[in-house]
Amino acid sequence: MNPGIVYGLGLGPGAADLMSVRADRLLRAARHVAYFRKAGRPGQARRIVEGLIPAGAAEHPMDYPVTTEIPLDDPRYNATLSAFYERCAARLRSLAEAGADVVVLCEGDPFLYGSFMHLHARLAGVVPVQVVPGIPGMSAAWTASGQPITWGDDVLTVLPGTLPEDRLTAAIRAADAVVVMKIGRHLPRLRRALAAAGRAEAAVLVEYAAMPEERVTPLADYPGDHAPYFSIALVHGQGRRP
Distance between CA atoms of 58 and 47, rounded to whole angstroms? Predict the structure, then answer.
């Protein structure tokens, strides 16, 4: 029996009509659909494709064992997630080895800070794996801001908000244009890093880009010390123009 294929399906930033034609075609023909979610919630990836999964397709939710309950620098965090990804990969491998194709729903692009990369690392070379790229959330964020993120020779730097404050500050200071992802409760740290780098007044926060709740706010005017999970901070480049 030929093994099935595990597809990492990039869904784009949050609107079903921003999926690629290829992703749409594979999803509408799927017999097995897997997706990550927080336990007790439907999950954003599943929400994006509501009404698109074929009747009769088997769904395979993969519930994260932790999200923010354990600090990132606690050894238990890595150990817990590693065991979780091993279990998920084994489940998908079993389906593929039985000849079934499996579509794994991935928010944004599967290879940009996505959980699917941890499955890919465990499955590639074991069963066939194909990745279908998607529009990343950062693209939807700068589109929502109404301004190009880069001009001319601007250097774009993409940073996770989980970095130590000194690294955030140095990277922001050195960049022409900046995208910061994974902000959440790290918003106060990001504010301090932007201020230290002299870029605080130029920063904007985009929440829920390409979703019904989309909102763009100058970061200096943003209330509170916590940003939603689907938030991206931007500092637009101001480089060479004709």
Answer: 16
